[in-house]
Specification:
This protein is mostly helical. It has five helices and no strands. The chain has two domains: 12-53, no CATH class; 68-133. Helix 1 runs antiparallel to helix 2 (32-53) and helix 4 runs antiparallel to helix 5. The N and C termini lie far apart (75 Å). The chain binds zinc ion (2 copies).
């Protein structure tokens, strides 16, 4: 065998796999089934480490936003913001009119998607243009 890949520490998924490898010590799997189980446990450890470390920014957070002085520069080149959730909601509304047999389900998803909108585009903090954010929810 030639060289090993460079060991990267401080990356949670790598660290989790190395911990798994270290825990195995000198243990040799007796057969393919046991070897595969050992590998999958390493993969599982990596996946769990990733899930534990990635937290999406809360709505309205500017964690992923460009610095304010750059936002002003890119602004003319950005499309108006309609969030994926609100765009999907609108597609559900249109499809509900086309497919009456799915209309109830599609309208439920429409409501759910509007409610799931993050309202603010995380890169430039632009506000979602969807009318669901301006139309009062309760109409007499
Ligand atoms: Zn909306
Ligand atoms: Zn929206």
């Amino acid at each position: 065998m030639s060289g090993h890949p460079p060991i990267r520490t401080g990356v949670p998924a790598y660290d989790a796999v190395y911990r798994h490898i270290r825990d195995l010590g000198d243990h040799m799997p007796p057969d393919t089934v046991h070897r595969n189980a050992m590998i999958w446990r390493g993969v599982q450890a990596a996946v769990e480490a990733m899930q534990a470390t990635y937290t999406p920014p809360p709505p309205g957070s500017d964690r992923d936003a460009l610095p304010e002085h750059l936002r002003g520069l890119i602004w003319p080149h950005m499309r108006p913001y309609l969030s994926t959730a609100c765009e999907t909601a609108d597609a559900c509304r249109l499809a509900a009119a086309e497919y009456p047999e799915y209309a109830d389900e599609l309208r439920a998803w429409e409501t759910r998607e509007h409610a799931a909108c993050r309202v603010t585009r995380k890169q430039d903090m632009a506000s979602c243009d969807c009318r669901c954010h301006t139309t009062p929810k309760e109409t007499p």
